[in-house]
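Dear colleague,

Thank you for sharing your sequence with our group. We've completed the structure prediction you requested, and as agreed, I am returning the results in plain text so they can be pasted directly into your records. Please verify that the sequence below matches your submission; if there's any discrepancy, let me know and we will rerun it promptly.
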Amino acid sequence: MTTLRLTMAQALVRYLAAQTSETGGNQVPLFAGVFAIFGHGNVAGLGEALHAARETLPTLRAHNEQAMALAAVAFAKASRRRRMMACTSSIGPGATNMVTAAAVAHANRLPVLLLPGDTFASRRPDPVLQQIEAFGDPTISVNDCLRPVSRWWDRITRPEQILDSLPQAMRVLTDPADCGPVTLALPQDVQTEAHDYPEEFFAPHCWHIRRPPPDGAELAAAAAVLKSAQTPLIVAGGGVHYALAGEPLAEFAARHGVPVAETQAGKGALAWDHASNAGAIGVTGGSAANTLAAEADVVLAIGTRLSDFTTASRSLFRNPALRLIQLNAAAFDTAKHGALPLVADAAAGLAALDQALAGWRAPAGWTSRARGLAGEWQTAVDQATAPSNARLPS
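Please find the predicted C-alpha cells below.
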C-alpha cells in the first residue's frame, strides 16, 4: 500500500479538495472554498495547509464567524445542496460565533462543514488562551456547544482518525435524508501531527445525490387516498427545490388539477403565474392558500417539515376529515402529524404518483374555486403594491 506522509491538516485539505459533485451533468468541486478567520487554534496547522492548497481549495478571509457560516448556509441553499462551503475559526469565541449559523443549517437541513480550532489534545499547554476549563470534565471545550446543532460531530484527537471520520462527514453532507451541518473539532497540536495516509484515501470522488423511489405499498396507499379526495391541496416545501422537482410539480399540478401552496422555504417551487399556484401558506401566507388549507380533505405535503409557521401552530387545517400524506426523503418528517408516509425523493415520488393517478383529476369545481381565490389574492396584492405617487413609498 502506497502512503503519503502528511500532517492531519494537510490530509484534511487534500481530501476535501478531491471531492466533487455532479451538477447539471458536469463535475464541479463539492467544496467551493473555505471561509476562514485565523487565530489561536487554526492558523499554524490548518492555515498553513490551506495556504499551500490555495489553487485547489480557495480560502476566503472573513471578518465575522457567524456571518461567514451563515453565508455558507446560504450558498448551500442556493446550490440546491449540490455544493457547499467549509468554515474554520479559532478557539473560543470564534467557534461559538458559529453556533447560530449551525442551528440555522440544522433546522433547514442544509450542509456546511465547520472546522473550529480546539485546545491541545495533549493538554500540556493548558489552559490556553480562550479555553473555558470545564471544572468537571477536562475533555469539554466550547466546541461542544456545537454538538446539539450538528448532524455529525467529532473531535479529532489522533491524526489517523480522519480516515474514518471524514467519510462519515461526507455521508451526512450529501445524504438528502440526513443532511445538515457537520462539525470536526480540530485540536491545534493534532493538526500538525504527521501520519502515513493511504494514497487511495485522496482519490477523486464524485458524490451523486441519492434519489430514493417510493415503497410500493406506501405509494399505493397514498394514491388511493388522493383518488378519494374532493378538495385536495399540495403544500410545497424546500425539498422541492433540493430535489430539482419544480418542473415535475408544475406538470403534476396541471395534469391533476390540484392547487399548490408554498411554504417559506418552498417559495418559487411553482412560477408565480402558474395556474395551480395558490400562493404562500401559513401565518405569513395569503388568503387563497389559507382558505384552501382550511377546506382541504387531503393534503399532500412535499419536502416540508410542516413547522408552526406553515400549519399556524396546527390550527390551519380544519377539515375534520383531513388526511395528510407526507412525501419526504427523510422518514423522520413523514411521521409527523399522524401523516401517511411516502418516503421518497420529491421528484421520484411525484413521478410515481403521477403514474398511479393516471386519468384522475381533482373535481373541476374545486380546481376552479382555487384559481378564483388565487386570482382574488393576486388582485389584492397588485392593489397594495401599486405605485401611489405619494411622498413615501407605497
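Summary note from our side: The chain has two domains: 3-207, 216-384.

Kind regards,
the structure core
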